[in-house]
Amino acid sequence: MLNLIQKDDLNEYTRPSQWVDYETPEIQKKALELSQDMDGPEMVENIYNFVRDEIDHSRDVGQDMVTFKASEVLKEGHGICFAKSNLLAALLRFMGIPTGFCYQRLVHEDRFLVHGLNAVYIMDKWVRIDARGNYQDIDAQFSMDKEKLAFPIQEDGEEDYPYIYSNPHSRVIEVMVRSRTVEEAYRNIPTSLTY
User: Is 66 domain-assigned?
Assistant: First the structure.
């Protein structure tokens, strides 16, 4: 398992932000609904499964509208990996679970691009989880013991970035905010991140 590096004070992973806007009533209502009579890993897994399975990946379902802010992703019911990671972070942070942002560099359609996922701090350790959505050969799962991400590193040049950020990376934000369509976002996703 990758040795994860916490980049900020743990409290920074529980705060709301412009993109992780868990102050909105819709986010709070959904988080409470999904966590009813649960806590710890069971609650995290239930919230994770909701984002992975009930919020569509925009490309999988042919949606071209760009969503990014957590409340917008919940309202529209779809988003790409970066958007879904914002929603997952908002729901978990509202429930008091420190949640950060992680990235991978992957080969996609014959070129490199950055992929976004989350890490949660639970039972005194960070665990990476990927709510991208299972589709065709993708089979991401919640696991406290062994990572089961959507995209294990396989190709030369692919990379797991070990850092856990309290906010989405600035280059990701820039692309998502500027893009008018999902396809435009995909064309502009960074091919790598420098740290």
Answer: yes
